[in-house]
Structure formats: structure tokens, C-alpha cells
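thread: overnight batch results

M.L. [08:02]
morning all. the overnight job finished for the chain we discussed friday. pasting input first so we're all looking at the same thing
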Amino acid sequence: MRHLEKADLMPWFARALSSAPRYSLQAAIQGARARIRGDLGLARVFINPRDPFGLPLLQALVQLEERYRVRFQLHTVWRLDDDMFPEPALWQAWAQQDATRLSSLYGFTPPDRPDPPAQAELETATSRLLAAEADPRALSEALEVFRELWAFKTSGSTNGSSEAARLAENEAMLRRLGHYQGSMVWYLGQWFWGMDRLDHLEQCLIRQRRNHDAADQILFNRTWAELGREAHPVAADHPAAQVPLEVFFSIRSPYSYLGLERAVQLASAWRIPLRLRPVLPMLMRGQSVPDAKKWYIFHDTKREANKLGIPYGFVADPLGPGVERCYALFDYARLQGREIDYMRSYARAVNAEGIRSETDAGLRQIVERAGLDWQKARKHLNDESWRDWAEDNRLAMYECGLWGVPSFRYGAVSCWGQDRLWIIDGAIKKRVKTGSTQGVSDPTVNAEVTQSQRSN
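M.L. [08:03]
and the structure it wrote out:
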């Protein structure tokens, strides 16, 4: 009789950690602690002047402060840990572009200055943010600082030792509470990143009846709630159907699992081709994923999956042999015209069904339910040619200025994250309307659209 191994137990451990009773218990404990401290209704906001996402976040929080009985306490941080940001130069360029897109979506002032803030400007902004923390109007003061920093040039000054000590205290609190970056809101034990997770915060506040009026409308859900709503099948000979939606993803990435499911829905709604471009997971590319980042992603994926109606949490990590076996059979599945079914089956198995893909029994189940022949498929398990195309896919992703998964590309438009498929949706919509065979420019940073949204 085979003895149980750690790999046998881990899916059940993940399932327990992501169960509804566990989250309910955590919420009850955090609520009780807040009552004891007298902190009910207190949300902590961690902002970093080097992070352009702080500008749209602060604009959104000012609106929430007016709408809900919630008190936002400001904490300024500075560090950007290298192991949390493996490609800092690419991250900085992407972050400003992405924050600008997000700002345009909501009609906010974007961080669209032509060059990043200089060190002196950042130091001045940091000093002003630290001074604003004790102000009753901290959010408004911080917003003014961010507007000046990311839209205009300011004079510089050097941080003093007292300011350095306060930054260290704020950063220690950030890590003690379980996170590692700015543009984060902490409320009753939950983390909410930037504007993308404010819909979850709004849901929490509504459940607690903290809204000032009876309206339960969620303000910040435009990145996902209307995805594909205006989609309609296009003719096979239409220029829009000649361009595939490319999906750069890792079979180990839980966000890739959500992104793949959503991309399939979007491509099906428009009836355009979908091209899967697998890459190796970060850990198998020599990049690190620290524990704080790993656990945040796990719990955040569960929250997002629940929202989108996608099962998640019974996780059997395919790192190593599971990934290699998955990719080894990809070409076989593609030649049968079933690569999408195969990858969806695999992703669902390792993210939501606890199936051990590194075993023959588990892999056979994945393969056969994708409509493939296991006896034929298994002959390809020793094929190493996938390593070449996986590297080609990684390089193609980097050519888009992106390094993480899931990433998406449609024509000349690319974006990172399952939260950004609305950008692809907009690019498809524009190509359908114009009937153009040329590359589509990014519709979310189009100057005319941006100006129109700001005036609304």
C-alpha cells in the first residue's frame, strides 16, 4: 500500500485554506479585533510615490470616502523589493501606461507625464506625503501630491533621518500585515490592489451597511463586468477574424487559468481565432516568487474566481514535471485541433480539481476528457522540442514590453493581466467597426476618447 506523500495532501490543504468557512471565520476574527481596538470602519492605505497606480487609486478612494462610512488612514512606503519586481525597468514603463489606461476608463486624471519623476521630485513628494498622514484630509492632500508629481515637475529635497524612520515603520507594518507593495488597501484582514480590487472592498462595505444611502451600486467594476457585452460573431472573411487573440500564459499561474477562461469566452463571443502561447513559469525561468506574493496571489485568485463563477482552490501544483508533461503534449493536442480543450482541461485539473498531473493516472484523465487518445498522447511525453517554442513565446511576450502572465495581444495592442481583457475587447470592437486590416492602436489611450471621458 502506497504511503501518502506531501503532494497528495497539498490540494486538500489548499482547498481548506480557500474554503468559505475559513474566510468567514477570518472575517469574524478580524471584526472582533477591530471592535476591541476601536478600529471598525478603518482601512489602511499604503502608497508609494514611485508607483503611478497611486494616482487613480487616490481619486477612487476620495469617491468612496464620500459614499461610505469608512476612514482611510494613509501610510507612505518607499521600497520596491527586487524579488517582488523581477523586471523593474519593464515594470515602471508598463505601470505608467497601464495606470493611464485605467485612469482613462474611469475619467480620472492620468499619470501621463512624458518622463518618470526624478529622484529629487520623488523625495519632495515623499516628505509631503509623510506630512499629510496626520492630516484629517490626508487622502485629498495625498491626491494633490500625486497629481503634481505625475503631471508636473516639482523641486526636490532630501529625506531626513526622521522621515526615513517613519518610512521604515510604515514598510514594517505593510509586511507584518502580509503585503509587499504600494497602491494597496488593507481592510479587516483583506488586501485590495489598486482600483482593480476596489469592487471587493465596496462589497465588504455594502455587506456591513456602511453606505450612506440605500444604493448598493458598485462603482469600480468596469474592468470586468461588461467584458464582451457588445460582442457579436463576425464573418470568417472579416478583417477582424483574420487576427488571432494571442494568449501568453503559464500552466502553473492561477491568474493564467482565469485569463484563459475569459479569453476563450471573449474569442467565442466575437468568433475570432485564439492562439495559445505557453511559457515556462517564473520559478522555472530562474525568477523568484516570495511567500508573501505567492499567498496573496492564491487568496486573490480565489476571490476573483468566485466573482467570475470559475471554480478554484483545489490546487495540485504542477511545478516541474507537471509543467513539462503538459507542454510535451501540447503539439500533439494542437495537431488534433484540440489544444484549447487540452489546456483548459489541464488548467481546471490543477487549479480546481486537485488532479496530480505529474502522475500517469492524473494526466490520462486530463488528456481523455479533452477528446484526445491517451495511448497516442503518451508517446510524446519524452519530446523536448517544446522548450524551443516556449522560449520563442517568452521572447515574443518581452517584445510587447511585458514579462508576466497572462498577457494578451491582438494586432498591435497588448496588455498584461486577466483584468485587462477589456483593452483587447476594445481593440476587437474598433477593428470590427473600421474593417481595417492594419494594426489597431490602443483604444484606451486614444487622445480623443480620453478627453471625452474626462469631460463626462
